[in-house]
Amino acid sequence: MIVEDIMTKAVICGQMTDSVGMLEQLMNKAGVQCLPIIDNAAQCIGVISAIDLIQLHAIQASLRGDVQAWEICTEPVVEISPYQSLTEAAELMVSNKLHHLVVTGAEGLLGIVSSMDILEKKVLRQGAR
User: What CDD domains would the database entry show (predicted)?
Assistant: First the structure.
């Protein structure tokens, strides 16, 4: 099985100038735990996770409204091809201590895959045996 088979294709993205409050609203509304952050040319410049926002709250609660996405996003972006295996995706997540990978191709951002996507697929596949 490959990444393309399980990735989320309708990716919600944040803009690099979005405030932390805007990012929180976007994540809550969409029900996602991670947002790729894109620049004006629609290129992914980083990723912000729910954990990043929790950490920001813990250390800079008073500055939260003034902080923009580009200031706190995790970079460089760890990318994976849609044609790589789920095992390769899992290994990349473990080696980089990540729960989400941005899926890219010649067309740019194609999707996102999470550790939960992989775990759900592996557990469901084993349960079907």
Answer: CBS_pair_SF
